[in-house]
Amino acid sequence: MNTRNIAIGSVVAAVALLGATFVVTQLGPTSDDQFAQCRASAVSGGASAIGGPFELVRDDGVTVTDVDVFTKPTLLYFGYTFCPDVCPLDNMRNADALRLLDERGYDAQAAFISIDPERDTVEVVSEFSDLFHENMIGLTGSMEQVKAASKAYKTYFKKQDGDPEYYLVDHSTFAYLVFPEIGFVEFFKREDEADEMADRVACFIDAWDK
């Protein structure tokens, strides 16, 4: 991996629950939820409490909206390329889940939104996303655009004080499953493994196609 993606320092990014601003509970099936059999948890306030419109710059330099990004079931992750270990590991797991889905004939993709647009230019996020999977979209933008997307998905990030070049960013680490037109349907925690993610995503796609 390019050295720009390896942080100098020993502090790792914050774990998901540190920055999470929504409450999750164990979910029981409900008769009016087409995805009930696929869900492992629920969001306080319902799935509609997560997600919303955003405008960012894609890794090909084109300004896009959420509608342009979520053209198929998408595993969405907020992170940054200079992250020393958490982001590479999480994005590799997401990519592994995509490969398993590919093998099973499911059409899905991943998207990576940088929370460090100061360093993560279009070229940097393009290089980063290409390392993991050909169907991973890299996204960046102005700090205002990134904050708006982060707020919509109830994520947390905070730049640490320190070296102006080699600073770290604390951030939440959920991966989100987002569908075209429907929006957010599920989230995955750090401890969820690729095969488990692939199974659950496949369940959602099967329920969506019915």
TrEMBL record:
It comes from Celeribacter marinus. The keyword Ribonucleoprotein does not apply. SUPFAM superfamilies: Thioredoxin-like. Keywords: Copper. This is Cytochrome oxidase biogenesis protein Sco1/SenC/PrrC, putative copper metallochaperone. Gene3D superfamilies: Glutaredoxin (3.40.30.10). Pfam families: SCO1-SenC. Belongs to the SCO1/2 family. The lineage of its organism: Bacteria, Pseudomonadati, Pseudomonadota, Alphaproteobacteria, Rhodobacterales.
